[in-house]
What we know:
single chain, alpha+beta, Arc Repressor Mutant, subunit A, three-stranded antiparallel beta sheet, 5 helices, 10 strands
Amino acid sequence: MKNPSIKNPSIGTARESSLHRSLKFRYSGSDGVTEAMAGDYVCDGQTSEGELIEVQTGSLGPLKEKVKELTRTAKVRIIHPIIAQKHIELFNDAGSLLRRRKSPRKGSAWDFFDAIVYAPELPLLKNLTIELALIEVTEKRIDDGKGSWRRKGVRIADRFLNAWHGSVTLKKTGDYKQFIPFRKKETFTVREFGEKAGISVNLARKALYVLTKIDLVERIGKKGRAFLYKRR
């Protein structure tokens, strides 16, 4: 049961996805604990060494204030899963499997900028590590008319961890230099950044926003009608 005095408690375990649960236990470790109290907050876990664990599958925006407070007194690790491969299983309302397919979309570490764009200064916090978990999942969907109109009423019932494909650890701002495909002092536009990184213009814009906020890139003017950036 949630304590009404606790600020931003973690998601209730009754609503927790299987994927979230698997990551929570994996990172807390066999000697750690889950649903760990830390001051006025509940964290997804805590390792035996005392590091607090937060698993966040979506935007990091909701964690901004919580993590800022937690890192004042403890080490915190945010686990953000990147779905490198997804299998989709569709069931009918009676629970029978209708079909199974592999999603054509393959996620990459660049997808992280969709999540951190709403909390771009998190990397500046001391005591914070962000780990991108590259994983393969199965997504269970049910065709019962209760889901999104975009999926024509099909709802996502759960996600399960299938396989682990490694991780990318971001502990200090310098670790984010790996996301800048230009040499020091080279200049580039958003479009040029996206082309060299192999990502969309929209995602390139989000990445540059974050990289500018953490002082690895600066906007120095314009090239025609486009903003011009330089790697510091």
